[in-house]
């Protein structure tokens, strides 16, 4: 089945950035920042060496959801959009197909603090609602990953859930988790 991101004309420019679909050639550029300790700390799946990362990165199901963030031709981060079905009762389940998305992001820490992540995520939200017609977006993180939840708040996402020690971190044990979401009508009303 064709991914909704395949329906768009890429690349897409923002004020300072270029967003484009990921390609196998992005392996080295993404490895450069994803293997850093400060990035490694919070990504959902860690790879200990380049060969393992290459195998994971090149999986079709990984590349299909992945966008690359470029600044002046240099890869500075990546975004994910996993289009999902909404929960629905059986009689109306067909109306809930591919109506929401889960967002994710990883930015090279050396580019932090300059608003690039905010700009890139805002662009992805705009694409999700205006171009893809999604009705709802959500994102999750560990409570301890303050830069991530602060980003969610900066882009206008609402905190929907704070769970207590339900999220298992690979080195820190059981941590609190946060869930944020945003509806299309909320986004469009604040533009």
UniProtKB/TrEMBL annotation:
Keyword flag Transcription regulation: no
Residues annotated as transmembrane: none
Record-annotated N-acetyltransferase domain positions: 17-185
InterPro entries associated with the record: Acyl_CoA_acyltransferase (IPR016181), GNAT_dom (IPR000182), N-acetyltransferase (IPR051531)
Alphabetic keyword roster: Transferase
GO MF, any single term: acyltransferase activity, transferring groups other than amino-acyl groups
Classification via Pfam families: Acetyltransf_3
Matches recorded under Gene3D superfamilies: 3.40.630.30
Keyword match Transcription: no
The protein's name in its UniProt record: Protein N-acetyltransferase, RimJ/RimL family
Organism of derivation: Nonomuraea jiangxiensis
Higher taxonomy: Bacteria, Bacillati, Actinomycetota, Actinomycetes, Streptosporangiales
